[in-house]
Amino acid sequence: MSMRAGETRLAIDCGTTSTKALLVGPDGTSTPLSFDGVPYLPSAVYVSDDGEVWTGQQARQAGVAAPSRLIPSPRRPADDDVTVDGTAVNALDVAAAPLRRAAAEAERVAGAPVRDVRLVVPAGWGPRRRTWLRQVAHRAGLPQPRLVEAPVAVAEHLLATGVQLPVGAFIVVCDIGGGVEVTVLRRSPSGFEVLATLADPSAGGAAVDHRLVGALLGDVNVAGRDAVTGVMMDSVRAAKEALGAHPAVTVPLPDRPPVIANSAMLADAARSVPQRVAQLTQEAVAAAELAIGDLAGLYCVGGSTHLPHLDKAIAEQIDITPTALAEPALAAARGAAGAGATEAGGLGVEEVPVPPVRRAVAIAVPGFASLALIWQCFMTAEQRNTIGVYLWVANLNWGEFTMAAVFALLACLAAGTVLGSLIAARSPTPGTRTEGGKVSVGILAAVSLGAAIAGLYAVVASQYFVGETLGRFLSWALWPITPIIGMAVAMAVVAARQWRAPHGGWSALLAAPTGSIVAATLGMLLVQYALTARRWPDMALLIDVAGRVGGLLIGVGVVMALVQPLMFRLILSAPLVVISAAIVGPYSTGILGVIYALAVAVWWAARLWTRIIRPAQPALPGEARVLLTGVMPRGGGG
Question: Is 200 helix (H, G, I), strand (E, B) or coil?
């Protein structure tokens, strides 16, 4: 069948032993992709003599003759090249081969390249591993993918298939593939949150396969020692699946006579898996500070879910009956792709035709603050002359002029996601209709609009005050906001490359702190009032006090932009507000305005660092998020 390009979604579940890919059309119909006649692609790759990386049936056949050139699990982040028979091969090229094969098959089925790609990753993967996977995807020729945590994708798939999980419910997702990953999640109003995740790469289907190979060959220690075992794994996996319906099957082995495998051998090889799954579940639930009785369900997915007596053994140890999902090997891919649901749980692109109240406030506060400051700046300044020839401006508050430009830019940036949605809706370019494309275009449009408004302030002021040159107004309007523009452009690049989506979403990230804006605006209004008001004798003291309070409020606004914790704000406020209140005067307003502009730039730099470059794992009060050191790639089959 043929699907329209640009509207299809490709979800790829990268497992330790196999890779599954799912193509979802614009109407929600899903198509699992097949490779060499089977609904999965073995992750093992073969490196030929000339350095070419082969996949699938071609790799398996070549591996029979030269097993030393077969790499069973290439999706393990490596900083150095991979050595095959003494020859160095680029690790990214090796890991990218299965992804490139999946993308080619998706393009063949869809009839055109698929631009919306989601990659399933383990919940325990940190920034380094995720960045590595993005580099692999880039090397494979994929567009910048969206990374979806495997247990979150499974939970979204549960909702899409009608499972009732109310907000506040806790569930456990046991991913039993090549390895085991157990994750505790809670459903929040905005989606699913990972509370704890533990993994053991040696406790899943890959370990069962090795034990079964050892049992078939009569040598329990053969795994990892005999290179031929790498090419017989496919036969063993096929036999393992067949033993679910038959008491015994014949297993063909390369360069050896076929042997008989029976259900007793499989049960013995898999005996330790449910015990380890139950243990990891207990530890993960305890790490999340919960009890087994708090769980709304325990769901098993992955290619090894149907191991014999797995559900009964788990239920006996932790007193909860696990539920095995239909098509467990594809559950994560279906959840990541949003198959059968309209972007369930927030996995899709955010459409914002009309901004909600909070976003409207984030736009309106700096917008009205900018208008109020520029209005007072114009209305309170005076134009004077000398002998009717030389015109000059008195009482022009350059700091107020600068802050008006800063707030105009902040208002535009707060509207960045709205602008991006409006532009994408009318853009013929598919790249701008992705989530990252919308945000990136929106930020760049907001920067351009904010700089244009600041420049417009300068042009209007130069025409209004004839005695001042345009260059001076442009300097006070544009130079102070240049660092903010630089930070915003950096965020636009991050969004375009889709390296990482900030916790809470881009709209929350782009909204400036309204408390700081309100304090600084009131402060500058009071300062300008104190500098320009008529100083009647009975009003002089009150006017002076208003000016000092204004300086104090500007200092408070600076502190609120620089630091977040209340204790740090109190410590920093004491000296800063005293200094800002003390230096208030007709020649220091420009300094106060520039200081505030720099504080906002520092605030943006901190957001870029803490939310994008080095984000902290989100955690709610009383909750724990445990990431097991050295978590290996998630099992995707076996």
Answer: strand
CA distances for 179 relative to 115, 224, 311, 496, angstroms: 30, 16, 17, 33
Query: Is the CB of residue 632 less than 8 Å from the CB of residue 76?
Result: yes
Q: What is the DSSP letter of 627?
A: B
CB contact set of 15 (below 8 Å; sequence gap of 6+)? 43, 177, 178, 303, 633, 634, 635, 636, 637, 638
Specify burial of residue 88 (Cβ count, 10 A radius: 0-12, 13-18, 19+).
exposed
Tell me what pLDDT residue 624 has: 38
DSSP state of 38: B
- Whether 408 contacts 119, CB under 8 Å: no
Closest C-alpha among 418, 437, 436, 417 to residue 427? 437
The predicted pLDDT at position 373 comes to: 95
> Looking at this protein, which amino acid is placed at residue 69?
R
Rg, the chain, Cα only: 31
Q: Give every residue of the chain whose pLDDT is below 70, as ranges.
A: 1-7, 63-65, 67, 74-88, 204-207, 209, 212, 214-246, 249, 251-256, 261-263, 266-267, 269-270, 308-309, 339-356, 383-394, 425, 427-436, 467, 497-504, 614-638
Residue 613 DSSP symbol: I
What does the alpha-carbon distance between residue 422 and residue 57 come to, in Å, rounded to a whole number? 47
- The whole-angstrom separation of Cα 279 and Cα 172 is 13
Please check whether residue 277 is in contact with residue 174, taking contact to mean a CB–CB distance below 8 angstroms. Answer: yes
pLDDT tens digits, 127-141: 888 888 888 888 888
Contact 15, 631 (CB under 8 A): no
Residues recorded for the chain: 638
Identify whether the C-beta of residue 488 lies closer than 8 Å to the C-beta of residue 336.
no
Distance (Å, whole) CA 251 – CA 260: 6
Rounded CA separation 258/277 (Å): 32
What is the reported pLDDT for 146?
86
Q: Which of 20, 58, 57 is nearest to 39 (CA)?
A: 20
What the block records as the tokens of 24 is: 């979802």
Of 190, 153, 188, whose CA–CA distance to 173 is shortest?
Answer: 153
Beta strands at 70-71 and 87-89: parallel, antiparallel or unpaired: unpaired
Q: What single letter denotes the amino acid at residue 363?
A: I
